[in-house]
Amino acid sequence: MTADHPDIARLVDPASRFDPYPLLASFRAASPYAVSDGLLVVGRHADCSAVLRDPRMSSERDRARLAPASKGPRTRNFLHLDPPDHTRLRRLVVKAFTPRVVARLEPRIRELAEGLFREAARRGRFEIVSELAYPLPLRVICELLGVPFEDRDLLEDWSGKLSEALEPPLPGLVAPRATSEAARARVQFITYFRELIAQRRRSPRDDLVSHLVQVEESGDRLSESETLATCVLLINAGHETTVNLVSNGVLALLHHPDQLKLLRGDPSLAAGAVEEVLRYDAPVQLTSRVARGDGHIGSLPVLDGDTVVLLLGAANRDPEVFDAPDTFDITRPPGARHLSFSAGPHFCLGAGLARLEARIVLEMFASRVTAPSLAENGLAYRPNLTLRGPDRLNVLFDDIQ
Ligand code: HEM
């Protein structure tokens, strides 16, 4: 930190979990700037968008001068690879997430969501995170991959630990214990998928794991460790993020009863509501890139190996791009694009699926839950900065239809 730049480490303060946006606005206004040697912060929409699309900005985090010394060879998933490996691996799974394929999932997602609302009605209470936002996307991605849903407790445990490792390289942020737990969870995931892959090799089914096994066997396009890394990436990215979109969405509607009423009156606003939640309270707040070679972001010099932290949640509220950026307005006209799904070659592969799941859930929440309100002390946040969302969200209601 320099004297005239706000201290980015203040984001870590638990007090800013409930509303980090005033702090993020100060970082955005001061950005781009260097936090310390090798660590830069970018928060303006135009700069984030340019960095995400710039081929000289690498996704290979271990190129960073700040990166911890690598402990032996490890296969990275394609989120953390550059072309040509990124292009090759992404292409193998992109077909499973095209708009047509995703649209076909709608009846099944509706059926699952209806079941979860029915159970909440029977119980007479609704804890949104564990009873709706987590189980729905986890079940959907398990079914797509062909992972038995009975193993959900294991998967939840390992995924949660892996999420810790997504934290940006801010001083004091990732405790060494969290890093070693993440490494252990990665090994457990790999062992789990190695067994599942062996089963699908013996008797293939109509699922994504079987598809990847067939690709691996049909030539030299995919190694076994790449298959494993892709499975772990898909299961994690497929639910750890969507849980926050659903919970942040329900919370935003509870905090803005006028918007909830609008949605209740006109369910066709649900798609716009999802876009507005993505912009207003991004489930993935941060990502980063590593500079290949020297250059500039605006007038800020960038050196080879510098880590550039991109504040997506701040960019989404940039007044240069969005009118009244701190207002939650589900009828906001389409136009300016939020960066919640990133941009450029790593644009979220599951964006269509996440949008569909959230649209179904927010529409059902608005139309079926009568007189919903946030329970007293009903909200607690996860400590994570990268994945932002509640840990607990208790909703009171009169009835669920
Ligand atoms: C990549 C956000 C849901 C799969 C990304 C990135 C972001 C993101 C920001 C790119 C990070 C970067 O550029 O460094 C989200 C959000 C979601 C969501 C906010 C939900 C609200 C999903 C779902 C899947 C998924 C449901 C299902 C498979 C992926 C994959 C990548 C990715 C595979 C890597 C793409 C690549 O590197 O080419 N996501 N995601 N995501 N996402 Fe999502």
From TrEMBL:
Does Cytoplasm show up as a keyword for this record?
no
Q: Which UniProt keywords apply?
A: Heme, Iron, Metal-binding, Monooxygenase, Oxidoreductase
Source domain of life: Bacteria
Record's PROSITE patterns?
CYTOCHROME_P450
Q: Which InterPro entries match?
A: Cyt_P450, Cyt_P450_B, Cyt_P450_CS, Cyt_P450_sf
Q: Region Disordered: which residues?
A: 59-81
GO MF annotation list = heme binding; iron ion binding; monooxygenase activity; oxidoreductase activity, acting on paired donors, with incorporation or reduction of molecular oxygen
Family matches, as Pfam families: p450
Q: Which family does it belong to?
A: Belongs to the cytochrome P450 family.
Q: What is this protein called?
A: Cytochrome P450
Q: Per the UniProt entry, what species is this protein from, by scientific name?
A: Streptomyces zhaozhouensis
What's the source species' lineage?
A: Bacteria, Bacillati, Actinomycetota, Actinomycetes, Kitasatosporales
